[in-house]
C-alpha cells in the first residue's frame, strides 16, 4: 500500500517556511521528511505529533484551506500532487504521453521515465487519499453515506480538479485514460454528467482533458461522462462548448498582449477579459488564463489580482506560495 505523509497546514508555527519548495524558493527546515513508496524516495512535508491518540484518520489535509489555485505543470514540483495540496490548490495539471501502452508524465519526451507514470504520481496516491478521507471504524463509517469526502478535511465536499494535458495522439491516448480511471469510477468518485437526465453529479475528483484531447471523444462518452473538456476561452461563443462537456475554459494571456514594458492590464484588455469570462460563466463554465507573467514579481501579483477582479476563476500558478498569498 502507498503510504501518504501528513501535509503541514497554514496555521502551524513555521509553516510558511515548511511550505516553500525548491521550486518556490526554499526548503522548510522544520518539516519531517517522509518517503513515498509509489514514486520512490520522494519527500513529503509532515507536521505530526507522533501520538496516535492525538491523530485522526483524515489528518492528511487537516487545517489546509482549499483555494482556487491551479498547480501548473504540477509534476515539476519536488513532491507532485502533495506540494499542491499542502497549499490548498484545488486543481493540478499533468502532461501525458502514451509510450508502449503506458501513460508517462512529463513535459517533453526527453524528460520521460518509466517510474513517473500517471498512476505513480497521481492516481495511486489519490486513491489512497480518498481511502484515508473516508475511513470505516466501529464508531462511524462512510461506507453507506450519501456524501463521499474529498481530499480536503476543511471542506470535504470540495472536488479536486485533475487537468490532463494530452501530449501524444489524443484518439489513441483517451481510451487508455478512461480505463486508468476505472477504480475511481467503480466507487463513484468521479464527477459525472448524465446525458439521459441532463444532470451533473459532483464527486471528489473532477477530470478534465486538454491539449490533444479530442472533443468528439469527450462527447462520445455516453450516457455517463466523467472526463470533461478544457474549452478554448477565446472561442467560448462556439455552440459546441457547453456545461455538459466542458468544466473549464482556458486561454493564453499572451494571446492578447505582450509583456514588453507592460506593468498593468489596461482598460481595453480588462474589458476583453471580463467579456470572455462573463460569456463562459453564462454557460456555467469556469475560466483560467495561462502564460501569465512570472517576473517581475510585482507584475505577476498585480496580474493575478486584476484577473480575479475580472472574475477569472482559477489562478494559474508556478509559484504556489506566491499565489496562496494573493
Automatic annotation (TrEMBL):
GO terms for molecular function: phosphoric diester hydrolase activity. InterPro entries: AIM6_PI-PLC-like_dom, HAT_RTT109-like, PLC-like_Pdiesterase_TIM-brl. It comes from the Eukaryota. GO terms for biological process: lipid metabolic process. Belongs to the AIM6 family. PANTHER family: ALTERED INHERITANCE OF MITOCHONDRIA PROTEIN 6. This is Altered inheritance of mitochondria protein 6. It comes from Rhodotorula toruloides (Yeast). The lineage of its organism: Eukaryota, Fungi, Dikarya, Basidiomycota, Pucciniomycotina.
Amino acid at each position: 500500500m502507498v503510504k501518504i505523509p501528513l501535509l503541514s497546514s497554514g496555521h502551524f508555527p513555521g509553516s510558511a517556511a515548511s511550505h516553500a519548495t525548491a521550486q518556490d524558493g526554499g526548503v522548510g527546515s522544520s518539516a519531517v521528511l517522509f518517503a513515498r513508496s509509489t514514486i520512490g524516495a520522494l519527500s513529503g512535508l509532515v507536521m505530526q505529533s507522533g501520538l496516535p491518540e492525538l491523530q485522526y484518520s483524515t489528518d492528511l489535509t487537516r487545517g489546509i484551506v482549499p483555494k482556487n489555485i491551479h498547480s501548473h505543470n504540477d509534476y515539476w514540483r519536488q513532491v507532485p500532487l502533495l506540494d499542491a495540496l499542502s497549499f490548498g490548490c484545488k486543481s493540478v495539471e499533468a502532461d501525458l504521453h502514451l509510450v508502449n501502452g503506458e501513460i508517462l508524465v512529463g513535459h517533453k519526451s526527453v524528460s520521460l521515465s518509466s517510474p513517473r507514470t500517471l498512476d505513480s504520481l497521481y492516481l495511486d496516491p489519490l486513491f489512497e487519499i480518498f481511502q484515508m478521507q473516508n475511513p470505516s471504524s466501529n464508531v462511524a463509517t462512510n461506507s453507506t453515506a450519501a456524501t463521499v469526502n474529498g481530499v480536503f478535511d476543511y471542506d470535504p465536499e470540495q472536488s479536486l480538479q485533475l487537468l490532463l494535458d494530452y501530449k501524444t495522439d489524443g484518439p489513441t491516448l483517451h481510451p487508455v485514460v478512461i480505463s486508468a480511471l476505472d477504480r475511481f469510477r467503480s466507487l463513484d468518485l468521479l464527477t459525472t454528467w448524465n446525458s439521459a437526465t441532463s444532470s451533473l453529479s459532483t464527486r471528489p475528483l473532477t477530470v478534465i482533458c486538454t491539449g490533444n484531447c479530442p472533443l468528439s471523444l469527450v462527447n462520445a462518452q455516453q450516457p455517463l461522462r466523467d472526463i470533461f473538456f478544457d474549452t478554448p476561452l477565446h472561442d467560448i461563443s462556439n455552440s459546441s462548448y457547453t456545461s455538459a462537456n466542458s468544466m473549464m475554459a482556458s486561454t493564453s494571456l499572451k494571446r492578447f498582449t505582450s509583456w514588453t514594458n507592460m506593468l498593468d492590464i489596461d482598460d481595453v484588455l480588462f474589458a476583453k477579459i471580463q467579456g470572455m469570462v462573463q460569456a463562459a460563466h453564462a454557460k456555467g463554465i469556469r475560466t483560467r488564463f495561462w502564460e501569465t507573467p512570472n517576473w517581475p514579481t510585482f507584475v505577476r501579483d498585480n496580474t493575478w489580482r486584476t484577473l480575479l477582479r475580472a472574475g477569472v476563476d482559477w489562478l494559474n500558478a508556478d509559484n504556489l506560495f506566491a499565489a496562496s498569498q494573493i
